[in-house]
């Protein structure tokens, strides 16, 4: 049986104290979050104390969760946190940071978290969470590819060169942690990449930009990631083509409202569906 971790991204609409105190809504949100080994949450307006309470709600004695969170991010008066919840018995955080150097290009700058698998320490993954501004979706997605991705990739290549030299000069025997020159980088989140925010012409232009950078969409243009009646693929993954087959299994949209049969309750949870993919762990 293939070993895998399920990784998700979920825009939990206006996730603040009011929603947190709604027991019916929170039961559904907690159940959704428990699906994932790692999940990026967006539109988070919770205090640090409420985030800790959320982690407690999601955790059990056998499946503990931890978190890393950005500070409230945004150029305007509207700001939101990026929040990553992760199973602390499976994953460890190596580093996390907001990429402030591109704040002139992206309204809510990306929040990057690099994870390492606890059992297979050579398995590492870099997740780049971003919630683009709907009025500037095309330019911000373009910046995510041409600026943010290239910057992160260059940093990882530098770390990998250092790791290689360390192993050559200082590390002997089987106790050394092997370097992984194909550590996947996943860009993920609500990109507003559809509908009136990103027409077909702009989508086609982005297709070319991704291809020129050896990247691909993980969620297609014809997909539906919204709870609303209209079909729009706002939420996306961007995968590296060279790493797609090696690291990425099934990619899905979790339509949580199908089992609720309660439209009002569904829309109270969010106007977005979570998106998710399987990360393969059977890597030699």
Automatic annotation (TrEMBL):
Keywords (A to Z) from UniProt: Endonuclease, Hydrolase, Nuclease
Coiled coil spans: none
Classification via InterPro entries: DNase_I, Endo/exonu/phosph_ase_sf
Domain of life of the organism encoding this protein: Eukaryota
Gene3D superfamilies hit by this protein: Endonuclease/exonuclease/phosphatase
Recorded family membership: Belongs to the DNase I family.
Protein name: Deoxyribonuclease
Organism: Gigaspora margarita
């Amino acid at each position: 049986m293939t070993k895998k971790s399920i990784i998700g991204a979920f825009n939990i609409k206006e996730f603040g104290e009011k929603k947190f105190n709604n027991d019916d809504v929170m039961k559904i949100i907690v159940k959704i979050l428990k699906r994932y080994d790692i999940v990026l949450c967006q539109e988070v307006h919770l205090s640090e104390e409420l985030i800790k309470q959320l982690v407690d709600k999601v955790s059990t004695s056998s499946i503990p969760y931890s978190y890393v969170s950005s500070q409230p991010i945004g150029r305007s008066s509207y700001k939101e946190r990026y929040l990553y919840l992760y199973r602390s018995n499976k994953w460890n955080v190596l580093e996390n940071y907001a990429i402030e150097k591109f704040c002139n290009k992206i309204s809510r700058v990306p929040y990057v978290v690099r994870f390492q698998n606890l059992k297979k320490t050579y398995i590492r993954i870099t997740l780049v969470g971003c919630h683009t501004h709907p009025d500037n979706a095309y330019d911000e997605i373009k910046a995510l590819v041409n600026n943010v991705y290239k910057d992160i990739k260059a940093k990882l290549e530098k770390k990998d060169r250092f790791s290689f030299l360390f192993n050559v000069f200082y590390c002997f025997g089987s106790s050394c942690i092997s370097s992984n020159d194909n550590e996947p980088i996943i860009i993920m989140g609500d990109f507003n990449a559809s509908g009136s925010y990103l027409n077909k012409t702009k989508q086609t232009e982005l297709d070319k930009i991704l291809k020129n950078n050896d990247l691909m969409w993980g969620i297609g243009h014809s997909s539906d990631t919204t709870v609303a009646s209209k079909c729009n693929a706002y939420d996306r993954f961007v995968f590296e083509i060279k790493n797609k087959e090696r690291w990425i299994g099934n990619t899905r949209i979790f339509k949580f409202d199908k089992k609720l049969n309660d439209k009002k309750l569904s829309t109270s949870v969010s106007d977005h569906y979570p998106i998710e993919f399987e990360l393969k762990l059977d890597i030699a």
